[in-house]
Amino acid sequence: QVQLVESGGGLVQAGGSLNLSCAASTRSFSHYHMGWFRQAPEKEREFVAHITRASSTYYAESVKGRFTISRDNDKNMVYLQMDMLKPEDTAVYFCAAKYYSGTYSRADAMDYWGKGTLVTVSS
Question: What angle do CA 88, 33, 107 make, to 5 degrees?
C-alpha cells in the first residue's frame, strides 16, 4: 500500500509559477513510476506528467515546455514545477503511482492516488 499526499497548490496569476510536491509513504518508492494528473470542474481527469523509476519523463502536449516533473528517491518525493501558468491550468492536481511499467497516460493505469491539491490560475 502506498499513501500519497500532495501539497503546494494555491492561487497564482497567469504567467506565474507553482511547485507541487507529493510525499509517498513506502520503503520502495524508487521502484514506483510516478505521475501527475489533473481534473478541472466538470471535466475528466487528464494526464499531466510522468516520471519512471529510471527518471525518464513524459508530458502532455498542453504542458510541455512549461511543467517539469522530478523525483527525489532519498526523500520519497515527487515534484511538479509549473511555470508560465495559464487560466486553463486551473484544476485539482493529483499525484499517482504505479508499480509495473506500461501505459502511463491513463488514469485507470495508476495504482495509487493522493487526494489532490487545488491550483487556481487567475487571468
Answer: 45
Cα–Cα distance, 5 to 54 (Å, whole number): 22
Strands (E), 1-123: 3-7, 10-13, 18-25, 33-39, 46-51, 57-59, 67-72, 77-82, 91-98, 112-113, 117-122
Q: 67-85 pLDDT, tens per residue?
A: 999 999 999 999 999 999 9
**Which cell goes with 20?**
507541487
pLDDT in tens, 5-53: 999 999 999 999 999 999 999 989 999 999 999 999 999 999 999 999 9
